[in-house]
Structure prediction request, 119 residues.
Amino acid sequence: MRYIILVLLNLPIILLALLNIVTQYKLKKVSKQRLHHQVLLWLAVLLVLICSFPVYNILTGKPLFDSSELSLFDIVQTTVLIFLFYIVNRQRQAIEQNEKSFRELHQELSIKLSKEKYE
Prediction:
């Protein structure tokens, strides 16, 4: 039961990350390569989340979905780590978009200043 709670708490975060990257791709804010990279990243996080505990149980000889050792602290800790990973990733994306805008504005300003210089 605890394992299901863990997955259900983290699934919306991962789905939100996937939705955000697809939205940014549709709005032409990220490249196709970045889209593939981010989708693979979040699918890997989802795969690790779903498979890590059952694999651990198999390796320790316990029933597949036995979550008796999974404490509330473990659930909260894992959820907070995935949420922080999401926040850091979003901040990195925002910084990259700001840098791109800044470069484009700087380029436009340079072009306008050079035109004024030659006029």
Q: What stands out?
A: The chain has a mean pLDDT of 92. DSSP finds three helices and no strands in the chain. Helices lie at 2-26, 32-59, 72-118. The chain has one domain: 2-118.
